[in-house]
Each structure stands twice: as structure tokens, then as C-alpha cells.
Amino acid sequence: MIRDGKQRGWLSLPVDSLPVWAAFNSVSFDGVDIGPLPGKEDRGSTVIANRSLKGRHESPLITIPRDLILSLERIHEHAKFDSDFRAVLEGLDDFGRTARGAILAFLLMQSFTACPSVVKKKGVSGPFTEYVKYLPMELLPTFWSSAECELLTGTTLAPALTAKLNSLHREFDQIQDATSNIPWCAEQWWDEVDGIIEFDDWLQVDAFYRSRALEYPGVGDCMVPCIDMANHTSGTGTAAIYEVDDQGNAVLLLRDDKDIEENGEITITYGDNKGACEMLFSYGFIEEDMQSARELFLDLSIPGDDPLGRAKAAVANCAPGLKIVDAVKGVIWDGAYIWLICVNEEDGLSFQIQQTVEGTRELIATWQDEPVHGFEGFRSILEKDPLWDVYHLRAVSILQERVASQLRDLYGSDDRVDAAKHGDGTDIRDRPWHLAKRLRLLESELLEKAYSHYEDQKLQLMQSETVLRYLSGPNVEQEEDFS
Questions:
Q1: Residue 55: pLDDT band by 50, 70, 90 thresholds?
Q2: Which of 164, 210, 403, 464 has a CA-to-CA distance to 65 between 20 and 30 Å?
Q3: Which GO terms describe its cellular component (predicted)?
């Protein structure tokens, strides 16, 4: 996309010229610069104190005019006077009306407008036409080679990455289909010989958005130049916060309890509770001092021999999986889908076809002859049932087996990952190999902890009078396997 006309590599501007761009666009810095940390140039650019900074006594470190906040509202404003971009945005229909769709389309258009090899320029140039050249190439897992992606086998990132790449391909096909009937797009973007847009370009603008978008109060998901150069630190290590001032400008503020020495780094948080998988997926790194995977998501499926399986899948309005969270008191989990798996017709779950007031027919779930309006709150219904301990034990047993299955996949691929050659002259770069190894270790530790925790829960529930009475009742010949 933004290429030098001879090579296919992304054309980047040196960050030491960013102050010129900032001055032209009324961006103000007070006590900070943007560049590599002294002695740590390999970490890329970040926000650095150019003098000693004292919490509670500093004005905004960076102020970005509201017109430079790249939000859905700002993009719609730009489309009003950029007819070329407006045609692209309108062609995307519903996708173009989302913050993600609009911002990615805008970044793609600005990158095309900035491309030095494009002779027939299209689109209206603006501040972002140059700013995109300062954004570094992010080594997110979507850019990993197939050999590098195989290192993730058994981790929760492996299915998430596959799903993401499939989604990105669908989005890319969508934008190609939506703009192929625009003459200049057909000629300059999609022509088989001279077309300049490739799937890698869509990967890059997606990486810009995922790794740099922030949720601003009153604005929503957006990108903010210069502030998006700040690196991440969670917890008490976070040095600054970002917000919007009373004029609608984006500002970076030093936390009251923080003092930063000259040449110190000004960090923000990308999310204190994000797990190792999400950090690697969205930002391409795992915090150096992260001692736990924090959380992970495991998919769940309704057993194929479940007689109500198709009906359950049709009415489920919740994600088909569960989230496991490392907590101070053991391991907690969250996921409504499992309760659909835990109960069946003999327990009181049934389905019936009901005609709506509009005359259409829909499938309705009932529990103990009472309608179930969505399964997000189904657990609270089951908790009131006399057999709650039985359902709870079923859930814990399913959870433990799902965790065991994940551990088998993870440990089963360990030897292959350990033996993988990496570094110069191989298909696997050092950084992806080390990141994959770190993720595997953190997730295996959390899964082992979860397995042990569920074993304790299961043994405790097995002593419940409700469970004992249920297992010794008239249906004892159909005793359930809770092993």
C-alpha cells in the first residue's frame, strides 16, 4: 500500500519528524516527546518524559484537537466532503456504519491516497494521510507464518486466530465486492495487473485498529494520533490516563500518584484484566511480568447424541463456550451455554413452536412449563430448583473434562514445539517462538489450576444430600457418570 514504488514493503516516516506533523495539526506536547527509549531502541517508539514530571502538578502532557480523534462521527464528517471515500463507505452498507468498518475503510483510503506510486490520486488528503506513515508495522499473530501459527496448537489462541483470519478474508471480499463497481476502484485497486490493494493491506489496517484503538468516554472506540504511541503497563505501573477535556479534545494526563524522571516512559493501560491470549492476539506481546494467563476462553459443543441438541442450538442466545478466570480464591468461570448442555427433557426442559402476533412461527424453550426468555439468566432459574446441586455437579464435570481435553491438546504438541527450529534461516522467527512458548506455559498453568479446583468442587458436590438422594432414587439404574 504505502510503498516506495520499487518494493512491496510499507513505507514509514522516521518518528523524529513527528513534531513537524504535530505542529501543523495543532497537537501540543508538554514535558514529553515521542521516540525510542534511550538504550532500548529495539522496543520501538513510545512517549518519553523530556523533563522531570510531578503528579498532581502537571498540565496535559499531550493535547489532540477533537478533529483529529478518528471516531465513527469524525469519519462521517469526512465523507461529506470526500466523494471518493463516501462512495467506498456507502458500498459497505451495515459494515460501513460500524466504528470498525468505517475506521478500517478510512485507513485503507488514506493509505492509498498517501501511496507515492499512485499517479491518479483519489480521496481528500488530511492529517491522517501523513500520520499513517508513522504507524509501525505490528507483528500481530495474523502476520505469523503457517509454521509459526502451528506453535499455537493446543492454546486458546489457535482457534481464535483461525476465526479471525477467516473473518478478515470475508471483510476483504466484502470491500472488494462493494467497490468493484466504482470505476476508479476497479482500475486502481482491483485490476489483475495494475491493482494496488492486496489482502496484506487489509491485515495491516486491521492491525492498526486492533492494536491502537482506545475507548474514549463519550466517544466510543476510536484512534487518537500520538497518544496511541504510548505503551502499556497494567496495575500500579500505569503512569497516565487518557480522556476528553471540556472542549472535546483528547488529552493524556499524568496520574496524581506518579512522578516520572527525565527520559522515563509514560505508559497507559490497554486493559488491566486482559489475559495473555488477548494481549498477544490484539497487541502482539505478553507483559514481561505477567505471572498468570489471567483468563482464557474455551469453546463448548452440545453432544451429538443429545436428543434436544438441534433445538438447543437454535434457541441459544449466548456464546458457545465459557471463560475461565484466575482469581484470588481459586478459579471462577462464566458461561451460560453450559447450562443448556446440563439439562434435558427428563429434567423439565422442553421446546414448542409458537405463533407470534406477526403471524410467524418461532421455537420457544420452556423450563418446568414456564417460558425461558434467553439463556443468559438460565443459571439463576436453575439455582432455585430443588435439584440445583445435581445440575451444578453436571456443569463442573463437563468443565473439568473440557479443561482436560485442552490440556491433552496442549501437552500433546509440546515436544513438536520444543523441537521446532527457529531464528535465522528458518521459517520460524525468534519472537513468535518465544511468545508461543510463553503463552503455552501460562495457559497450561491456569488449566492445571482449574482442573484441580473443579476436582475439589466435584468431590464437595458429591457429598450433597441432594446429589446422594438423586443417585439413590428410583432412577438409580440410570446413574450418571460424574467421574
A1: confident
A2: 210
A3: nucleus
Three-state DSSP state, 373: coil
DSSP character string of 322-352 = EEEEEETTEEEEE-THHHHHH--GGGTEEEE
Rg (CA), the chain: 27
**Structural domains in the chain?**
15-266 (3.90.1410.10), 291-478 (3.90.1420)
Burial of 168 (0-12, 13-18, 19+ CB in 10 A): middle
Neighbour tally for 283: CB within 10 Å: 20
Task: Look at residue 436 and tell me whether its pLDDT is greater than 80.
Answer: yes
pLDDT range class, residue 335, cuts 50, 70, 90: very high
Q: Residue 95 — φ and ψ, nearest 5°? A: -60, -35
- Distance between CA atoms of 164 and 55, rounded to whole angstroms? 41
Please report which confidence band the pLDDT of residue 481 belongs to, taking 50, 70 and 90 as the band edges.
low
| Average confidence score pLDDT of the chain | 91
| % of the chain surpassing 90 pLDDT | 75
Q: Please write the tens of the pLDDT for every residue from 384-398.
A: 999 999 999 999 999
**DSSP annotation string for 194-248:** T----HHHHHHHHHHHHHH-EEETTTEEEB-TTGGGPPB--GGG--EEEEE-TTS
The 3-class secondary structure across 440-468, one letter per residue, is HHHHHHHHHHHHHHHHHHHHHHHCCHHHH
What pLDDT was estimated at residue 381?
93
Closest CA to 62 of 71, 52, 44, 49: 49
Strand ordering across the sheet containing 240-244: 28-29, 62-64, 250-254, 240-244
Question: How far apart (Å, rounded) are the C-alpha atoms in residues 349 and 382?
Answer: 11
Is 421 exposed, middle or buried (CB count within 10 Å of its CB: 0-12, 13-18, 19+)? Answer: exposed
Strand order in the sheet with 361-367: 349-355, 361-367, 370-371
- Residue whose C-alpha cell is 466517544: 219
